[in-house]
Structure formats: structure tokens, C-alpha cells
Specification:
By secondary structure, the protein is an alpha/beta fold. 41% of the residues lie in helices and 18% in strands. The strands form five sheets. It has an eight-stranded mixed beta sheet. Helix 21 links the parallel strand 23 and strand 24. Helix 7 packs parallel to helix 9, helix 9 runs antiparallel to helix 10 and helix 17 packs across helix 23. It is elongated, with a radius of gyration of 34 Å.
Amino acid sequence: MPKVSVIIPVYNTEKYIRKCLDSVCNQTLSDIEIICVNDCSPDNSLEILKEYAQKDNRIKIIDFKENKGAAVARNKGIDEATGEFVGFVDSDDFIDLDFYEKLYVKAVKGGAEVVKGSDMKILHQDGHAEIDLQNEKIKKNKINFWCQYTTAIYKREFILKNDIKFPMGLLVGEDPVFAIKTAFLCNKIDIINDAQYYYARRENSLNSEYWNIDKVDSYIEYINIVTSFALNQDLSDNDYRIFFGWVLNDIFCTRNAKGKYDSEYYNKLNQLYNDVRSKIFKFPIKLLYDAKIFVKPDKRGIYWVAYNILKELKKDKRFEITLWLEGYCNISEWKKDEVLKDLNVVYSYFALGEKTNYKIVKNKNFNPLYYDAYFNPAHNAQFSFNCMRPAIFNVLHDTIPMLKEPWFTREQTINFWKFYSKLTSDVNCFCVSQSCKEGFLRFFDKLDEEKMIVAYNSTAQNFYPEKDLNSLNSVLDKYNVKPSSRGDYIFYFGAVNDPRKNIIFNIKCFIEFIRKNNIQNLYFYIGGLGGDIVKEKFRMLYGVEYPEFEKYIVPLGFVDDEDVNRLYSNSKFFSFLSLYEGFGMPPLEAMQAGVPVVCANNSSLPEVVGDSAILVDASNKNDIVKAFEKVYYDEKLRNELVEKGLERAKMFTWSKTVQLISNKIIKVLSGGKYDS
């Protein structure tokens, strides 16, 4: 019995076959048989085979009288083989002279059914070479052996026992089918890194990239074959995810590469992706949650959206959540947070070395294909992986950077555009309002409207009416509010230094209102960092008139979370004159706290407040002052607005929002099998 049977399918390779045969016939392992299957070559290949067979009695020629394809040729070789192991060499490739000796020695020593040589070296027509790195992946898990099948030898008894053959009739994918079945069914694959196989890439780039419809259909059949095969195996969850992550990634890359030539190809391959994803769907869903917003957080609107969605998602046992960060960050503070502290964290990259001398290193232990979905709750971060596995789900907040770029720093603008540039028809989006959705569709023609749904926000905290003068005074004492600045007040809470919030104009309207009506005991409390700067701007703006109303503008500085509800609840009314909002959390917070609201009538704000607030033009001082007069002097109106506001606020809860989000994710991943 020969130690190795070398199977060489031959078709139309007269220019290359001599080099191939020389490398096989001169192997240092002499106890081999060489089975050459001529697939009805129209050139001089058969004559060359006969020439070599006359000089080497180890060569056996099988001559097909009609072309049957490489799969039939290789299968015939397997049937005729008598060796302990079988190996395959394509007739335009070649191998090291000690290739099979090294593989065979390792096989005998290690007892593996499959022994693989070095990563394949690809030789291009223009003379340059590249190494197709696969061995490290296969060492981690034999399931990763899906290509480079010619770089290995296989125990013949194992191949025959499991009836592993090359599928006939495929124009694409016959080799991976053989390799995948081998990897799944063998006990182990040993690897040596000093036995080289050389693959000659003969086609030019255009021909290798372009497929006709027959190749597309053949690829689809190949994917369906390996998918059905894998689904019938008893795989661990880890192997299941590794394999099908690779399958989905391969479909995605093939769709993008081949689909660019023909929309029919694109649509077919896109449908294949969705079909396979639905077939392999199972619970729990492995979800990567983008956690950049929680690193050194600025606890404004988007932070609370990200935090509260995560808080609710954790309750859904259909999901297994892992926090993702692109680079390593100090997250020691997360250990104190009730939502973040018990979640696993993964990084795409690490910084190795000192602060002034370091390099960025890829985390090789992180495999994004392992995860089903990636969820990005904030605009200032985005998963950097060109694939639909994991499926990408984004929360879209607003298009303000396109509308008002001067309002943002250069860094903020760059971060926004980094995010926006990744928005394509492949991503699924949760828009925080209908206005937000319409804005994105207006600016981004690549987005698929069918993959964009409105998922309204709720509030940062749980707000409720809490009218208590004694407890309010305790809060005012805490923030050093002078007795001369206490009484009825308007409480503003939010981003003081954001020009979009229109805080300067809001206070101007307030001053006009108290001046016009000679009101002596109404104050404007500013909650948030930057209030002192606002007050200084008014000092410069009004000059000698400033002392007249200085005491009415009261910066509180940073307000602790536990104090916000009390300040809202005891406010005479709430004024929110923002120039643009993706959603608009503050007026909803005020309504929950039982406070009448005067609100700008632009962007998403009418969606949030409905008829539960007085809507005004945020740039019309006269209209705003009149609205202030109405709500200040009309107690009946205030009570009506409070009642309507409390009822309206019930429409917006994080549990409703996250139920909509989670159901949508499941529907997408399952192909509609789970629709609630």
C-alpha cells in the first residue's frame, strides 16, 4: 500500500503541468502513487502525462473521453486510490519536494485524520506573491478549515467511511464543500508550517471578479449545501457561531464583489444572506452593545438614551449582551454602576507600551463574526467592520451637524461624519422621532426606508410631581441660592453651552416678560454647567441695566440627579425654546414632573408634546412673551396643561421603546419567524 495517493485532475494545462509533475514525481517520500485524471483536455496535456508515465511507473492515467469537471475527476481519483493517505494537487500548481514526506511523518506521529501544511503561497501572473493566512485560525478551531484543501493529506479510510466527496455540477464552491465536511467530521487537524504548496493564480483580476448568472446560482447551491450539512451536525454553540459567522461573512463579501456587476446578482445574493441568517437563528441572541458613550460620560440626552435602553435590554433573557469598545479604556468606574458592572467587555484593539511610546495592536481573541447583532446607541461611535455579521442596528438621533455645522467643534463634526459615512442600506435604524427619520432620508439616499422605524425616547430618570416647599428649600440651600432669589421660578435644565438650545434668547424673553408685567418674584434657574458664563454674557449685553435684573438669573451649576425632579416639580412653568431637536427630552421630563410647558414648535417637539403644551415660534419674542403671560396668569390653563402633560407622558416609556427595538432585532435576524 502506498503511503500517499496524489490525485491530479488535469484540464488544458500543457504550459504548467511539467512543473507540477516534476514537483510530485521528485518527492523525497518515494512511496506514493500519482493518479492523473485527464478531463478530456483539448490541448497537449494527455501526451505530456503519457510521456511522464513512461518514465515513472507510479503514475496512473485515467482518461475521460468527455469533459466531466474537476469534481468528477477528483472523486474518480479517490475511488482509484490505494494509499494510506490521499492528497490533491492542481495541475497548474506545484509543491516543495519534501511536501508529502513532512505531512506523512506528522500524520503517523500524531494520528490525525488530516494533516495540513504551510499557509498557501499564491503566485500572481505579475510576479508578486502573497500568503493566504489560515493556519492560525485552524489551530484555534478546526472548523476554520474551509479552504486550502490541497495543502493537506487525508486518511483514505476516514474519507471513504464518511463518504466525503466533491459535489458534482458546481461551478463555484466544490472545494470548500470537501474541506468543510472533512473539518466537521474528523477528530483533529494537525498543522506543520514548513511544507509549502504553491498556487498559481492564472486569471486576470477582471475575469476572476466577474461571474455570470450560472456561477451565482452555483454559489447559492454551494452555500445551501454547507448550511444544510452544518445544521445537521451536533455542534457546540461556539463552533456553530464561528462557522455560520464565516458563512454569512462570505456571502456578504461575495454579494458586494459580484453584485456590483449586475443588480440581479446583488438581489439574489442578498436574499441568500437573509435566508441563511433566518435558518441559523437561535436564542439567546449574542448582542454587541457599543459602550463608548459610557466612557467619561457627558450625562446629557444621548447618554441617557444609551443607558436606559441597555438597562431595559438586560431584562430581556432572549439577549446575551457584551459591551464593545474599539480601544482599551479605563472603565473602573463601571464597577459601581448597577447596569454596567456585571456585563462582559470586549475590545477590538489594545495600546501596548508607555503613553509616549506605544503601538496599537489588534485583539486577536475578538471575533466579531461570533455575534449576531451590534447595537450602536450613540452617534459618536461606530463598529468598524465591513460585514453584515453582526447585523448592525443604529439609533439615529438627529441630523443637526448637516444643518448647523458652525454649532459644533471640529472634533465633534469629524466624529459625526465618521458615523454617518457608515450608513448604508444594510443597516437597520431606530429613529427617535418621525422628524428625525425624515431628516435622515432627506440627507442620506443610501438608507433603506423599510429598515428605519420610529422608536421614541423616554426620559433620563423617572420624573413625577413632587411639590414640597421645605424639601425644595433644602435643594436651593444645597446650590447656594440666595433668599433674595427665591420664589416662583422657571427651571431650565440641559446643555447650557449648546447654541441649539437657544438659552440666551430664552432668558431674553423671560426678562422682557417680567419687565413688561412688572413681576418682582419670578426667577430663572439654570441647571447645568455654564450658567455663570451665560450670566456674564447678559452682564455684557445689558451693561448698566444689568443690576436691575441680575438677581432673577440664577445659575445652579451642575445639578445632582436626585435633585432634578424636585426642581422640575416646583417650577411655575417650563420654557423650552430649542431651535432643533431629534427628540426633545426636557419637555417630556417637565410633563412627567407635572409642570406646564411652553415649547418650540419646530422639528420633533410637536410630536413629543402634542396638545399638552403651548407651542411657539422659537425666534418670535412677542409670541413667546404672550405664551409666558398666558401660562403665568391663567391658573386654569396651567392645571389643564399639567393634566394633559401627565397623560401625554405615559405614551413614552423605555419599556415600550425597548420592546419595539428588541422585537425588531429578532424579526430581522429570524427573517420574520419571530414577529413579536
